[in-house]
Fold this protein.
Amino acid sequence: MPMDLEGRLERINARIEAACDRCGRSRDEVTLVAVSKTHEASAISEAADLGLTVFGESKVQELKGKIGRCPQHLTWHLIGHLQSNKARDAVFLFKMIHSVDSVSLAVELNKHAEKQARMVPVLLQVNVSGEATKYGFRPDGFQEAFDQIVELPRLEVHGLMTMAPWTPEVEKTRPAFARLREIRDEMEEHLGAPLPELSMGMSNDFEIAIEEGATLVRVGSDLFWKRSYAKKK
């Protein structure tokens, strides 16, 4: 019989704590982002009843369709690729956007943040693996894009995000996470200001990511188990 949501959450928290212990970090340094994409408001409410408050969604339209049926105290993070024509709604709906992957998208977000009189915390997505199927800035030349984005007055760059290559041998993800941390450190030195957030690690590899400095881990399948994909009419 599959473990219930409470049991899965307890197991994930135990894994986070063990990873923190191994690298001498405090559990308070790592935020669990519950990836709720494709899941119904009822599952999100159940998770919220267990104490989770930060949820990750990949699509603006999906959140628009269910946010009214979810607990109102929750914090929403956008973790998926964002098209520029959805920037206005993203600024309104999300507390943080993890996936800023181009200067043009950053400019569009800044424009709508100005119109809404909001400051928008963002993370810049870096494609450290170089995979053609992944979005994000390439490490080479990233500093030029970084310099343009940090000058946008309505965006607050809090750090970086990446997705490691999927592999059944999770130790092979370590170089990707280590490289993102190195790039973050380089940008901190260049900027002369802290970039405290590193969003990296998902269900299969978040422990390695924590050992390499992750502050935000995005966990979906190990938490919510089977996804409830809507049937097409």
Notes: DSSP finds nine helices and eight strands in the chain.
